[in-house]
Amino acid sequence: AGGGKAALRACGVHNVCRLLSRRAHGFYARDAGVAHRKNLGLLRRIMCQESTKFKNVWTTHSASPIAYERGRIYMDNYQCCITSIAQQPRLIYQKSKCAKSEKIEDALLLECPLGEMLPRPSDYKASLIVLTVQNWLLRLSADSGEVLEKVYLAGSCCKFFRYLSWDTPQEVMIVKSAQNKLPAAARQAGIQQTVLFYLAVFQVLPLSFIGMLEINKKIFGNSVTDVAVSNGILIVMYSMGLVRLYNFKAILEQFMEQPFDLGQEFNWNGQVGVVGKYPFGLPCNIKITDTPPLLFEASSLENAFQIGGYPWHYIITPNKKKHKGVFHICSLKDNALAKNGIQDMKCCSLEPDWIYFHPDMSGRIIHVGPNLIKVLKLKEVKNHADQMEIAEDFTIVANRENCVNNSVTVTASGRVVKKRFTLLDDDPEQETFKIVDYEDELDLLSTVAVTQIGADGRAHLDFHCNEHGILLKSIPLKESWDVTYSHEVYFDKDLVLHIEQKPNRRFSCYVYQMVCDTARDDD
């Protein structure tokens, strides 16, 4: 306390909130993180210099999917790991080819929490949580691929676990089963399947079992199509476009029958075994016997529903096909539509526009169309403090200066030719936005724009100031970009990585590294 008062006096600040704000902005040289923030600021300035280039340093091709996680490239179903941090990507480990029964279905990167005491030295290093086709949950060392922990998930009842996700990032993990479906013969015999999904809940580092529950038709209704858990909310989706939200933490507390620890011997519903060991797996110890209290519900086309902003708002599309591409931004408090809250780009395109809350936690909204990116903000309506309106913060426009779309042309002989069609907004021959992302450590908004002339498509990655949208840097990608293929682009500090999926499960990975060179060359 005395040290805190001394710091207040020394800097002439007499308000605790102001002191904390100044600390967050790095005013005090002894504060943890100040050097890191300064280094990132320097990196951003260096990267945006005209003399700084991004050079394609490595390319590889694979017959299996390629994944990227925090400076590591995974291939061959996570059996091969390559670091992308080195000047040239190099092999970290290569494991022998696994059997089909050991195939990995999903994976999450697990990073050590700061300031916590952990039981094992290996817990302080990054690891990979993977889910295998045979219902094993494994924690692997990110440096060697060694198995650090293993948990068997499914017991005697048939549960095919397929998906990993975070409830609370790096704290609480959800393992979700595929939707339970009876064989056709069983359905014809009149047998009914009431359990749709299983959810297993884990605390991570140290890995501990919280509980497992069923999503049952008898509780949530017959038309449930999917479920998800995020930030303590159970999200249930229905075939008619309805989305319902429940308090997941309250469900765990209310319907928990008996807590269990991994490795604990148990006698449960006539079964005797060890929690998390083969062949017993995990007990279904959370039984929802009544419909939980409903927090919120909304109807939206294709169950599209997002929450964000400040104060809290949500985004939906009215639940009719004719409204596809129309987005309503409403207050979560009273469902009131914000002023200017209907966003419609009126695009005529094959690919729909998309909208989402900005991941920088500013409460802003990003709306992406074929040739326009709008960054929107929520603000109070003048003289109406209880009402919010949507205002434009800035826009980013595709470069279509050379695009000519005349409906009437004149040939060399003087004949007038009228076109019977107009180009789509996302016509491949016009520059079109394909990817928009946010680099949080450098506070940059990145966009990928593509133009395809004939069989040859050209793409460039642009960095924009996240605050004002000003273009700071443009990086041409050397490889051809086919708009009919699936693409992922990762921008991670001084690294750009492009993963491409071609037909017949052919994958390519292109790695670009930042190169500071004042000489003008082709690199």
TrEMBL record:
One of its GO terms (cellular component) is Cul4-RING E3 ubiquitin ligase complex. The chain crosses the membrane at residues 195-215, 227-246. Signal peptide: none annotated. One of its GO terms (biological process) is protein ubiquitination. Keywords: Membrane, Transmembrane, Transmembrane helix. It holds the Pfam family DCAF17. This is DCA17 factor. It comes from Hylia prasina (green hylia).
